[in-house]
Amino acid sequence: MTEKEKAVGKEHVEGKEKGTGKKIYLGTNTKMYKTIGDTCTYLKALKELTADISEEQAELFVIPSFTSLAAAREILQDSGIRLGAQNMCWEDQGQFTGEISPLMLKELAIDLVEIGHSERRHVFGETDQEERKKVTAAVRHGFQALLCVGETLEQKEYGISDEVLRMQLKVGLHDMTAENGGNLMIAYEPVWAIGVHGIPAGEEYVNQRHRVMKQTLKELLGEEAAWEIPVLYGGSVNPGNAVPLMRQPYVDGLFIGRSAWDAHDFNRLIRSVLEAQA
User: Directed axis angle between helix 36-49 and helix 69-76, to 10°?
Assistant: First the structure.
């Protein structure tokens, strides 16, 4: 580790420990829930409830279903809440029935694209190489790519969580350079910790995995980019563990599931995290 990296990393960690100096990232993916009407009602309420939160305090984002994106953009166009898409094809056009192209998302002025969610990998069989192509396409078109990574319970029990995360990052970000750092976010979502029957990961376990990911980002993109790329935790985040998770030195934000699907609940969670960081 170079002296410069030590200085940058120390500043990052100490800033988190003191609750100062770093913007936090809080977002949700509503998966295959909420109709267009449900999404509009949710976003209108969330927009009003969080209108006083500055972008310097927190970067808020919501990733609804594809059918809701156009209506969602109309609601959020003059707000501080960023809008994302749950998936994207790596090709601009072609014979890809059922896929969504980057050009289609650009028409809607989408801010970010979620790539490699656990369900895309483990239900629909997407590979690390496919996630790499999607990340590359997203960055090429000016989106922020939110790359999701995470180990299965079996991999955790074999003690290879770090190896799995390093591989997913190294393949998924293979085409990236330090200059792309501003277009990247990472979400750590242990497969065993998400969903209805998810088991929340302990804060120390999460912090250690985030530490490994920061080290891997440094190897791939350089030390400054590694510390600037937000690494979020997602996996059964709830009002009880949100603040302890955010207090971890290597956790830059939270990617929240069902605990954020009611606007008032999400607002309360956001407020609790902001108060704890003050």
Answer: 20
